[in-house]
Amino acid sequence: MLAQMLVPITAIYGALLALILVILTVPVIKLRKGLRVGLGDGGQASLQQAVRAHGNAAEFIPLFIALLAIYEINHASATALHIFGVVFVLSRLAHASGLYQSPGASLGRVVGMVGTLTALVALAIANVIQVIC
Known about the structure:
CATH topology: Four Helix Bundle (Hemerythrin (Met), subunit A)
Order of helices and strands: HHHH
Largest sheet: none
Number of domains: 1
Distance between the termini: 35 Å
Helix content: over 70%
Strand content: under 5%
CATH class: Mainly Alpha
Low-confidence stretches: none
Number of helices: 4
CATH superfamily: Membrane associated eicosanoid/glutathione metabolism-like domain
């Protein structure tokens, strides 16, 4: 008999976000090797962009996954979980794309950060409301 998975929706978005993080790691590795930079960005703008695209994702993804899992464990609706998940995943893709397009301001970066922060704040509020109501 298979054990019932406690957080199947979180598992989906966790897996997608892990893949995004791995995809963002590849350019960092390639640039470090090609530019012979072992640590930091070596003053190379292309490496700095790649490091920040990866780093920004690595900073936000764990908090999102933790909040999503907590929300799911506490019996949130599947629809709400998927909305948070889709908004966050699309936002992370938009942010990374925007950062690769330009080291300065770009539509992708703005949309990505607005979506990322909106999803995090809304999910945090949803968790608090779920507990107190």
